Amino acid sequence: xxxxxxxxxxxxxxxxxxxxxxxxxxxxRLGRSTSAVSAQMKKLEEQAGTAIFRKSGRNLALTDAGQTxxxxxRRLLDLNDEAATALHGADLEGWVRLGLxxxxxxxxxxxxxxxxxxxxxxxxxxxxxxxxxxxIERIEKGRIDLALTxxxxxxxxxxxxxxxxxxxxxxxxxxxxxxxxxxxxxxDDVGGRQMNLGDDPLPLVAFxxxxxxxxxxxxxxxxxxxAWRMAFVSPSLGGLxxxxxxxxxxxxxxxxxxxxxxRVIDGGLPPLPSLDLNLLGSxxxxxxxxxxxxxxxxxxxxxxxxxxxxxxxxA
Length: 315
Fold this sequence. Notes:
single chain, three-stranded antiparallel sheet, globular
């Protein structure tokens, strides 16, 4: 089999175009002509030996092979950039303070810290895993440099000078992975599962207030006329996962970090909105150290997101 050496410059144009939703905007960002970027995309398909793009109105759309190529392109560029930074940025010194939601503490934090430490061994990272409101408050007061948070109503540049939207993540109803959903569901006439609450209120598992996802859950239920009660309240996400797995009730969360002993509820409860996943910074012009950590964090989240969303389709 002939070995293919993909052109990193072509891959960077490819990824930039997909991130911006337009290769005209990608050309402007990269300082190239639109025709030059188009020629690069043709070269990429020739190197791949298969179609990368498909027609979908005016929007950019990828074939299955294109989706695979995009994932590998991000990884190749991340490794290239990490190597360049390690060679030219090794002299960076200082410290940076990072805050993340509990959802990402176990799934992303080790990889992010490891990658950053390899590239910048002289920089010290102070990481804090906390709830959304706490992270936003710390950003506002300059107590941390970067924070990965859920979109909050009223959040603007006045409270967080640096805001980058990384992804849109759907919220979902979550229950125990046992066949009957911890007694909340029963088989229906077509082999599926339906709510089996009778006249009882829906038991909820939730954070202590204030909590954005708790508010979204109760608002959705109230609008749908579904009675509910708080069955378990905890300040810890681990406590919520455990209570839900034990069958104490259902919870609202995103599929990010969801344990294997839980599953997404597919139908039977009112629909929920999606959440913006934002990277907040305490300064409008971050330092080189903060900017580098932000790049690593955004790339890690974007690479991991397809795997998280597969949990929704597996419901």
